[in-house]
Design goal:
Number of strands: 2
Structural class: mainly alpha
Distance between the termini: 58 Å
Shape: elongated
Order of helices and strands: HEHHHEH
Length: 120
């Protein structure tokens, strides 16, 4: 789903472009690595800032990771920090929508039948 988000970001956000499919795969792998390793560390160290901004700091962290991917991968271009912010928002919204669609519905909890209790 991250690949779909990056494709949508390149189509919707001016200032973000991807040259070909191989570059897209490299960007998706790098963003996945960033999200798995760097993002939790950044969230931990910037927790007071995130609390102070009521969660908007997470958008800035996503934008920073998106911007770093643009600077590290040849053929993936992110023009400035605002393009990275909007690209991160598009990718996050795409992942949220995909997880809501793919998620299985919750089954109602059945009350437990307890036969081992003796009533007096």
């Amino acid at each position: 789903m991250l690949a779909l988000g990056v494709i949508l970001a390149t189509k919707l956000v001016p200032g973000i472009s991807c040259s070909d499919g191989t570059t897209l795969i490299v960007v998706v792998l790098l963003l996945s690595l960033f999200n798995a390793i760097l993002k939790p560390i950044l969230l931990l160290f910037t927790l007071p800032f995130i609390i102070l901004t009521m969660g908007l700091g997470v958008i800035l962290i996503n934008a920073l990771l998106f911007f770093w991917a643009g600077s590290l991968v040849e053929g993936f271009y992110v023009a400035n920090l605002w393009a990275a912010v909007w690209g991160g928002v598009v990718v996050s919204a795409t992942n949220l929508a995909a997880s809501l669609i793919v998620r299985s519905p919750k089954k109602p909890a059945k009350p437990e039948k307890r036969d081992d209790v003796i009533d007096i």
